[in-house]
Design brief:
The chain contains 11 helices and 11 strands. By secondary structure, it is an alpha+beta fold. The chain has 3 domains: about 1-145, Arc Repressor Mutant, subunit A (Orthogonal Bundle); about 145-230, Arc Repressor Mutant, subunit A (Orthogonal Bundle); about 235-304, no CATH class. The longest helix is centred in the middle third of the chain and has 19 residues, at about 190-205. The two termini are about 15 Å apart.
Amino acid sequence: MFKKEGSNMNNKVVKSHRIITALQNLSLTEMRLIQLAIIDAREQEAGLQTNKPLKIHAKRYAEAFDVQIDTAYKILAEAGKTLRSRYFKFINYRENEVETNWVQQVEYIKKEARIEIIFTVAVVDEITRLSSHFTQYDLEFIATLNSIYSVRLYELIVKWLSVKQTDVFDYEILRGQLGIGVNEYQRMTDFKKRVLDLAVNEINEKTDIKVSYSQEKNGTKIVGFKFKVNKKAQKTANTKTLERDADTADMFTIEGLTDKQLGRITRSPQFIKDYSDRISASSDINRDMNLWSTHFIQELKKDA
């Protein structure tokens, strides 16, 4: 996936380590909404107090995760029914287990195709009081992941990128962090096949990191997992390495990229910022992201 250096901070998901390592049970679409909400809440300072809810429109979700607008409508409508009941558990500074909901209020405004969210006090604390204990990553790297296990595993291990290897994840705790119910995938072979291997393979295929794992045993019993994590080189199977030097603008090749992948490039905030001056201010292209994307996909194909 193409990624410009100096990525816009507005696209970064920033979570405290307490939230990252918490035990939680969000679905994939709910997790995506929470990720968007954290990004937008930090940018807009909304959703952090009862008199200023955070607004998330269907179009925002559709553009961020490259889904059809009708699908986004349905996702927001469903979230309006379920997100209020979702909760997570974490260990606080007193070493006590705390259980809290993600949001204290969620409202679906059908005629405007949006939801409005107000976070709970615990989440607000973790969003607004981040110091050195946080994890951040670019939303684009997990936007195409189709499994909640892949998203959660990515979040859990990406903070170890600088040291290239994680500590041991206790098996039972890891299950809760991945959102696996007590009656799901109880056999180790099922857990590895349906959860761990699925997540590792999808992360390796679609994101910016490369992951592998080893098993930790107590006798013959598997009690935990350790992960190796490395940054991928900026190249894909059918593309040349991205090039940059001090005297030229960013250069990249589109060979091997699909229209869908090119579309994600054209909709990124950095691309829009860099190339908006190529479109007349009065053009309809500036008012319709689909027209914008279609136009620049063709421009990229003509002259990457």
